[in-house]
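Render this sequence as a predicted structure.
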Amino acid sequence: MEPRFDLFTTETGSRLAKRFAGLGQVIDRSPLPKLTRELVSLRASQLNGCGWCLDMHAKEAAAAGESAVRLALVAAWRESTVFSEAERAALALAEEGTRLADAAEGVSDTTWARVREHYDDEQVAALVALVALINAANRLAVIVHQKGGSYEPGLFAAVAEES
C-alpha cells in the first residue's frame, strides 16, 4: 500500500499539522504524565491501525525512557502486570473512547469512575483531549496511507515550535 497523498506538502495540510502540534503542546504541558500520554496514544493507534502514529509514539515513549517490555505489552495491557492501576484506567479510556461505535454507552461509567479515581481535573481534561486528538490524527494518517518508520523523536515538537 503506497501513500496516497502527502498532506503536509500543501498549505492547508501544513497549517493543520501546526495546529495539531499546538494542541499537542497544550496536552504536553498538562500534568498528565508523559509516559501515560504515549501509552494512550499507542493504544489508540494500534486499534486504528495507524503505522505513522505507532512509529511516532513508540519512539517518543522510548526516548522518554519507556521500557521495551511495556511498549510490547500495550496491546495486551489487560493480560500483563507491568501497568499501574492509573495507567490501566487511562488505557481503558483510550480503548472505549476510540471504539465509540462498539458500545451504546461509549465510555462506560465504570471506566470513567476508574479514571476519576486516579486523575485530577487537569489530568482528566488532558486525557480526554488526548484521546480525541490521537483519534483524529490516526484518521488523517490512515486515510492518506501515511507510513510509519521514518519518524525521529522530537520531530512533531519542532513543528509546533514553528507555529
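Summary. The radius of gyration is 15 Å. The chain has a mean pLDDT of 92.
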